[in-house]
Design a protein that fits this description.
The protein has 258 residues and is an alpha/beta fold. It has 10 helices and 9 strands.
């Protein structure tokens, strides 16, 4: 069913999810709810192996709709933070790869949305930032947790404490962005990357994603044990037999995702 602000189109097993709430695609409760609905719907489809998240117009997502904060009390703030975390958790929990294709502004909640994705591709004019402290608040949808895991605590503190934005090249240099594309080419570059990933074994990619995401919260020895379990699970799959067989026979594998 069409939604008001968040919809997707599917081509070649890649879903393009677009947030489109002019003029700057600001996140309010309805937009957040629609993002979650879109990912839950995509998670139940067998014709989707990768998702690209982008913004309509020339903006990714310029942040939360600040009007929500005007009359919000601490209880409401706790509820909003939990709700937002659940929305972005649906992105993190998607079994396939999720790529943020960022053009223009990715500020506040928009930056946190990008952080919830597996990989970030930005065009050269993209701007990232977490400016919440300038409003007397702080990131509350994962920014204080996901950003330091990507860029380290010192750089994350610098960005969050100052509220200063950074450009795409600087974002790439600190590990916030994986690829920088020419202006207007973020979606195209993300699609090229998604197509390459979809050539690989989908169960293997899904298990590798789980190993990385789950291992980040574990001590090294526990993470290694978890990796071993997920690694071993692949040896009972048809894709493992196909992948090894194709390598030996010097042909392209035909994975079925089982």
């Amino acid at each position: 069913m069409p939604r008001d602000f968040v919809n997707f189109e599917i081509e070649d097993r890649i879903a393009l999810v677009t947030v489109n709430r002019p003029p700057v695609n600001a996140l309010n409760l309805q937009v957040l709810r629609e993002i979650k609905e879109a990912f839950l719907e995509l998670g139940g489809r067998k014709d989707v192996g990768a998702v690209i998240v982008t913004g309509g117009g020339n903006v990714f997502v310029a942040g939360a709709d600040i009007k929500m904060f005007l009359e919000m009390d601490p209880d409401g703030a706790v509820e909003l933070s939990g709700f937002s975390t659940g929305v972005f958790g649906a992105i993190v929990g998607f079994k396939g790869v999720v790529i943020a294709a960022v053009s223009g502004l990715a500020l506040g909640g928009g930056c946190e949305l990008a952080l919830a994705c597996d990989i970030r591709v930005a065009d050269k004019d993209a701007i990232f930032g977490l400016p919440e402290v300038g409003l007397g608040v702080m990131p509350g949808a994962g920014g204080t947790q996901r950003l330091p895991r990507l860029v380290g605590s010192g750089k994350a503190k610098e960005m969050i404490f100052s509220g200063d934005p950074i450009n795409a090249e600087d974002a790439k240099s600190i590990g916030l962005v994986e690829r920088v594309a020419p202006k207007g080419e973020a979606v195209s570059e993300a699609r090229k990357l998604a197509k390459r990933i979809l050539l690989r074994g989908p169960v293997a990619v899904a298990n590798a994603k789980r190993a990385i995401d789950e291992g980040m919260g574990l001590a090294l020895e526990e993470g290694l044990r978890r990796e071993g379990v997920l690694f071993s699970e692949l040896f009972k799959t048809a894709d493992k037999r196909e992948g090894i067989g194709a390598f030996i026979e010097k042909r392209k594998p035909d994975f079925i995702g089982e």
